[in-house]
Amino acid sequence: MTDTVLVIGATGKTGRRLVPRLRALGVDVRAGSRRPAEGRTLFDWDRPDTHGPALAGADAVYLVGPELVEDPTAAVGPFLERSERAGVGRVVVLSSMGVEFPNEGPGSGRHKMEQQVKASGLEWTILRPGGFNQNFSEDFLLPGILQADTIATATGDGAVAFVDADDIAAVAAAALTEGGHAGATYTVTGPEALTFAEAASVISDAAGRTITHRSVPSEEFAQALQAGGVPADYAAVVVGNQEAIRDGLGARVTDVVERVSGRPATPFADYAARAAGAWSRP
Ligand SMILES: NC(=O)c1ccc[n+]([C@@H]2O[C@H](COP(=O)([O-])OP(=O)(O)OC[C@H]3O[C@@H](n4cnc5c(N)ncnc54)[C@H](OP(=O)(O)O)[C@@H]3O)[C@@H](O)[C@H]2O)c1
Q1: pLDDT value at position 31?
Q2: Which one of 18, 64, 142 would you pick to mutate in the ligand 1 pocket, going by the greatest count of ligand atoms within 8 A of its CB?
Q3: Does residue 49 surpass a pLDDT of 80?
Q4: Which atom of ligand 1 approaches the CA of 9 most closely?
Q5: In the chain, N or C terminus with fewer CB closer than 10 Å?
């Protein structure tokens, strides 16, 4: 029985969709954020003094690592030990399909974080989603759409089984509150794989104007990420993931969303229709 869950990254793309799902199931949710507000619990990876109070009385944790940190293990390892000591029984970790790509081998930060989780005494479930739909409407691909009607990536003609953050939240909610998910590593994808040009076409239909995909060289993409404040080592991971997608490795479709959450994965066109307001010009 899961009564109390600490959701780390509760203001993020998956966390803020997970919080209401858990509350609707009657779970007492600690919505972890560095930015205090009503209904939130102070949690900062860089401030271990916030970890104990956030964990007190929690049965389970939804773990989103520190943002834009290539190797989160220095923070995650002690946190897992502390969770065990605090009586937490279960952890559901947001990893990435990227750990299955050649650029994120055993030496990579996210891979090492997964190993830490598996070595902990906690009951664990690892989620490895593909690229989020919401990157187009809530994250790094949005400014290009708003300012230049362009989606620039280094993925060439490679396809991605884009997944909706709401579907990831549904899988996480099941793994946190139901039995049968301990020791599972789930590759979480949408129902179809689209190239970025195809995604741009669907977004154009929803937005009511033409949005195009521009394929850029890896170096240009890396420079753009760093100009936007992404540290060089993390930018290298993102670029490596994009190259793997370009080489055809991002197109794998799984049935995890339906199998674990009991509802079909969201088609990209349904997401785009719902998100269309985000692409209105300011
Ligand atoms: N985006 C994708 O396509 C994608 C695909 C696969 C995997 N992932 C994985 O998903 C994870 C989340 O990435 P995202 O882009 O979706 O970000 P996000 O969850 O939308 O935003 C990051 C969240 O982390 C919190 N956070 C950041 N730094 C923190 C810190 N030092 N201490 C505590 N909380 C902190 C932020 O909350 P506050 O600012 O409120 O503190 C925010 O809620 C990453 O680990 C990434 O590897 C992403």
Answers
A1: 98
A2: 64
A3: yes
A4: 43
A5: C
Asked if 193 and 160 count as a contact pair (C-beta separation under 8 A), the reply is yes
Q: How big is the chain, counted in residues?
A: 282
Q: Is the pLDDT of residue 68 over 80?
A: yes
Structural contact between residues 239 and 225, judged by C-beta atoms closer than 8 angstroms: yes
**pLDDT at site 212:** 98
SS3 state at 272: helix
Distance CA(127)–CA(210), nearest Å, equals 34
Average pLDDT of the residues in 219-236:
96
| Interacting residues of 93 by C-beta distance below 8 A, sequence separation 6+ | 63, 113, 114, 117, 124, 125, 126, 127
- 13: CA distance to ligand 1 center in Å? 7
- Say what the pTM is: 0.98
Atom 18 in ligand 1: residue holding the nearest Cα:
12
73-85 vs 109-119: helix crossing angle, rounded to 10: 20
pLDDT for 197: 98
pLDDT band at 198 (very low <50, low <70, confident <90, very high): very high
Domains of the chain in sequence order: 4-279 (3.40.50.720)
Rounded Cα gap, residues 20 and 5, in angstroms: 12
Q: How far is the CA of 223 from the centre of ligand 1 (A)?
A: 21
Residue 213 to residues 154, 173, 210: CA-CA distances in angstroms?
Answer: 10, 34, 10
> Is 134 a pocket residue for ligand 1 (Cβ < 6 Å)?
no
* pLDDT > 90 in the chain, percent: 98
Rounded to the nearest 5°, which phi and psi values hold at 74? -65, -30
Ligand 1 pocket check for 12: Cβ under 6 Å: yes
